[in-house]
Amino acid sequence: MWEGSTDTRDPKFSGFLRELSLNAQAGELTLRFPPHKHPELSAPGKWNLEGDAAFAERHPESWNYLEPSSPNHALKQLEKAIYLDRLSPWMEQIPTGARVLDLGGGIGRFATEWATRGHPVTLVDPNPAALSIALGHLTHQKASFELLHLGAEDLSVIAENTFFALTAMEVFCYLSDPGAGFREAARVLRPGGRMFVSVESPIGSLEPSVEHSAEDLEKALQTTERAVEGDVWVRYFSATSLRESLEEAGLVVEMICGTHYLPDGPLHHLVNFERVGDPAYDQSLIQLERLLEQSATWQNRARSWVGVARKP
Predict the structure, then answer these.
(1) Ordered DSSP codes for 168-199
(2) Which of the residues 87, 97, 111, 233 could staple to 123 if both were Cys, CB 3.0 to 4.6 A apart?
(3) Alpha-carbon torsion angle 241, 247, 248, 250, nearest 10
(4) DSSP state of 270
(5) Does residue 236 lie within any of the structural domains?
(6) Do the domain assignments include residue 234?
(7) Is position 33 within any domain?
């Protein structure tokens, strides 16, 4: 009936796909996505998929944060805007119409961004429920897209040198084998193609909603991983280890910087969340993020490291 790849310029077909998405979210049908088999995820990385599924069951409105009615919508939009503030100068260099990959793309946060920019986009994720939601969001745009049920460590069904660009936002730090993820991502990029990536730093091991002392922050920076079986697995990166991982995959690093010092970061407690979503307030936070990234005191205390790398 539908193979996971489509062009939504036909409004009737778009409506049909949206109905499929809504019915899947309601539990009235099950959608299967190519390559029509469950990816084989190993522990501890698969714990994140289990934790994500549990959260989605308990808090479906929060999980589907691309919906404006979601309680997480404004915060997630701000977090995305912080990423885009650093990445857009490079993203704008990707030719319009060039194929891009959103690796571990979940419900479509960056796939919808690429589609808005006029790119045919392939979204890969190991969670079929997330792909079902992404289907609904992508059909609201006049876009060509493909949804693949794959884990980031094995993209063997995708030919090498396929994509002009690739986003892997908050992905590699959650894999059992990050090196395999970096290598597979580099393999499917075309020569000259760019990878846009973010990973979690050790500051992510701290509870963000409370104020932490300088000693707390320094202690956190020594943390290497977080493991809760059946719920979450994170391997924390430094700016140096992110650079090394990209270079070991054969890529040329063009930029690495810290982000998310404020929302979900060490200064989370300073954000007035009643104002998040106000364009002027959000823009002021983005400007402050840039200042913190340049600060000798805060530069290495980012919640996330974001980078751009090019395939020679």
Answers:
(1) EET-GGGSS-HHHHHHHHHHHEEEEEEEEEEE
(2) 111
(3) 160
(4) G
(5) yes
(6) yes
(7) yes
- Site of tokens 């908050």: 170
**What tokens appear for 143 in the block?**
């876009």
pLDDT-derived band of residue 1, with 50, 70 and 90 as boundaries? very low
The token pair that represents 11 in the structure block? 């409004």
DSSP conformation letters of 77-94: HHHHHHHHHHHHHHHTTS
Q: Tokens at residue 122, please?
A: 């392939």
Q: d(Cα 169, Cα 305) in Å, to the nearest integer? A: 10
Of all helices (H) and strands (E), which one includes residue 65? Answer: none
Collapsing DSSP to helix, strand or coil, 117 comes out as: coil
Judge whether 188 lies within some domain: yes
CA 183 – CA 132 distance, rounded (Å): 27
Q: Which residue has the tokens 């912080």?
A: 82
- Enter the pTM of the model: 0.94
* Distances in whole angstroms, Cα of residue 234 to Cα of each of 175, 219, 225, 229, 247: 8, 17, 5, 11, 21
For 142-173, the pLDDT digits (tens) are 778 999 999 999 999 999 999 999 999 999 99
Contact partners, residue 134, CB within 8 Å, separation at least 6: 105, 106, 107, 108, 111, 123, 125, 147
Number of domains in the chain: 1
Q: What share of the chain is helix, strand, coil (3-state, %, to 5)?
A: 40, 20, 40
User: In this structure, what CATH number is given to the domain that contains residue 247?
Assistant: 3.40.50.150
Condensed to tens digits (0 to 9), the pLDDT of residues 102-132 reads 999 999 999 999 999 999 999 999 999 999 9
- Position 66, amino acid: L
Range of the domain at 146: 5-72+87-200+225-258+306-310
